[in-house]
């Protein structure tokens, strides 16, 4: 390409044409260089440029997300302001004579100071005139022979860092702390009633104020036996409870949030009717003067006196009556007043106002195995219709209207009542259509989520704990594990540092104030 003459003499149109031509030349040169590099790599026996796919999550939720959100900027972003006070240290330098001072060039360094500290408190001891001994109390936060900072470190490492007890012992001993495995276990499990009660109160606040909760469960080990850990939560809180069962009765028991009573009230009797308990037994329970029972033993004795405990049938009357009394207790304490429970269609979660996760429902279609091209085409066509429908449900949540609600209901019927010729797919569509009311709760309650991704994300910490540390051996250990993991998740959702939370609760000196978590959860849920 010949160089132009005097550029200053070129017109605007000629300059534009020249720039376009130069862009074309540069593009061709870049292609040539790239091809030559690949050829050189091939001749040298090296691998070509790796084909790395974008690191974006897959699935219906991501596929139906807005493109600007899916492929937005993923850079590091601006530097964050340090969370602690910055200490200034002036560094001097030798300069030749005549140099002029130009101020300072700042260079910020973050560091961590971990060192052992042993304190011997010399507590005054006095004897009174009447023979009693008075000893000066320990400062606030000091309980036992390990200080609050060490206890905070152990709790943080074990519950949020998922570090095993053996490794915590090795860390502390390596630093210079004289501690044993038994002593670490005592720090983790002994005298932690305050944390367990706060975790329980978090659940109570959530069940009283939350417009919706998502639920899930996973396997857990306790006392060398298989059990289940149930998660309950939303955008503001998380709670875990590990038990030996995953039945509906067990779930209702967990929803009492620590209350032990059984109550026969209108809600309990309505539950029993819905579960097809005989009208004679319902009248027997309703007409009895005793309506509130302190615990399971008192309730079971009541069923024995009425002769219900000995009855059998296709639907166990004892089980249905107990579930009803549990539901009566839940409503008597003001829980789940207008709360929607969103689940993955596990039967034990189907109580009260219940909604289903769309991601789990679509996954059933995705998992079908097609053996010919016709069935595969039908499967992909239905999946595409469901994805488009899911995208429109997300848009409806942002701007609900009666017209769009009616249109989406009619469209649901057209999708799930069709016949494709793929037998397994047609059966599944009928099954999903039978869940129509639970899948379309969002049309009446656009504030609820369309999936249970939050629960699945929350419960991963329990899965990790199970894989790393196995199970628990004592009831205190189980209660502490569930409580601290739930509190750590709740702190993250509320934007509170778990480290600061532990420091404030353990009364570590100079720790920032952290309000009672149930109060924060109640306030956030009431505003949502």
Could you provide a short overview of the structure?
With 528 residues, this protein is α/β, with parallel strands linked by helices. The chain is built from 22 helices and 9 strands. Among the domains are: 199-353, no CATH class; 358-444, no CATH class.
Strand and helix map with partners:
Blueprint: H1 12-43, H2 60-63, H3 67-70, E1 125-127, E2 133-135, H4 148-160, H5 165-175, H6 181-189, H7 193-209, E3 212-222, E4 225-233, E5 238-243, H8 248-255, E6 262-263, H9 266-274, H10 279-287, E7 292-293, H11 296-306, H12 317-332, E8 340-343, E9 353-356, H13 358-367, H14 373-398, H15 402-416, H16 423-434, H17 436-439, H18 441-444, H19 453-469, H20 475-494, H21 498-505, H22 517-527
Parallel strand pairs: 3-8, 8-9
Antiparallel strand pairs: 1-2, 3-4, 4-5, 6-7
Residue stretches low in confidence (pLDDT < 50, at least 5 long) are 52-58
Shape: flat
Largest sheet: 5 strands, mixed
Structural class comes to alpha/beta
Radius of gyration: 32 Å
Number of distinct helices = 22
Helix content: 40-55%
- Number of E-type strands: 9
Give the integer mean of the pLDDT values.
90
Structure description:
This protein has 528 residues and is of the alpha/beta class. Among the domains are: 199-353, no CATH class; 358-444, no CATH class. The chain has helices at 12-43, 60-63, 67-70, 148-160, 165-175, 181-189, 193-209, 248-255, 266-274, 279-287, 296-306, 317-332, 358-367, 373-398, 402-416, 423-434, 436-439, 441-444, 453-469, 475-494, 498-505, 517-527; strands at 125-127, 133-135, 212-222, 225-233, 238-243, 262-263, 292-293, 340-343, 353-356. α14 (373-398) runs antiparallel to α15 (402-416). Residues 52-58 have low confidence and may be disordered.
